[in-house]
Amino acid sequence: MNRLILILIVGFSTLFAPELQAAEILDGIKGRDDRLVMPSGEYPWRAVGRVNTETGGHCTGVLVGPSLAVTAAHCLYDKRKMWYVPAPQVHFVAGFRNGKYAAHTTAKNYIIPNGYDEQAKPSRRMAFHDWAFIQLNEAIGYQTGWIGVRDAFQGKGLDESFVQAGYSKDSKTVLSAHIGCPILRRDVDQFADGKKRALLVHRCDAVPGDSGSPIFYYHEGKPYLAAIHVATTKELRPVQGIAVPVSTFERGIVQLGGGEPAFPEGEEAQISHTVEILLRRLGIPDESTFFAGQGLETPDRVGYDIIGQLISAMTKK
Question: What is the pLDDT of residue 151?
Answer without folding.
Answer: 87
